[in-house]
Design brief:
Length: 176
């Protein structure tokens, strides 16, 4: 087997690409479409990939750029996202407190501005270094750090507010 082909293991990166795409578009079907489009571009540009370079970062950059290109060229995407945000996802009553809390955290994460959501996803979920995440997004490291900091602060504020106004009631007493 050609050693360059071993360094170009896209299959091993699919999970990361799908997670990142899902955090960008918030819809599993659209995320799969985004990953597919990005992989087509990666295949077309495979000769530009330098052996020994960070394949994951390169692929995540392609996913990011594909998303940005699609967003700019499709004004309808904005209208659809706005409509989805108004409707929201129907929440099923959680059978356990942790499931409800996790749904609320997910909702808070998805309500973050796109720039903050991108930065926090790459650093916290994909476990990328600040430098690698900044390179993926094509921004300075300081800008990335600022976005991550603001995202974390908003999530902490949400947690503090949620704790102050608990949505859960004890069955059989105690809550007024």
């Amino acid at each position: 087997m050609d050693p360059d082909r071993r360094n170009f293991d896209i299959i091993g990166q699919l999970a990361s690409l799908r997670r990142y795409a899902r955090s960008l578009v918030r819809d599993p079907g659209d995320a799969e479409d985004l990953v597919h489009d990005a992989l087509v571009k990666a295949y077309e540009r495979r000769l530009t990939f330098k052996a020994g370079a960070n394949l994951r970062g390169w692929l995540l950059s392609i996913v990011h750029n594909t998303y940005v290109d699609a967003r700019r060229s499709h004004a309808a995407r904005k209208r659809r996202d706005d409509a989805l945000q108004v409707e929201g996802e129907p929440l099923q009553p959680a059978s356990q407190e942790d499931a409800l809390h996790l749904a609320q955290i997910r909702e808070a994460f998805l309500s973050l501005p796109l720039e903050q959501r991108e930065a926090l996803h790459l650093v916290a979920i994909e476990d990328m270094s600040y430098q690698a995440a900044a390179d993926t997004l094509g921004i300075p490291v300081g800008t990335l750090m600022s976005r991550v900091s603001r995202a974390r602060a908003k999530l902490r504020t949400y947690e503090d507010d949620a704790g102050a106004r608990s949505h859960l009631k004890l069955v059989g007493g105690g809550n007024d």
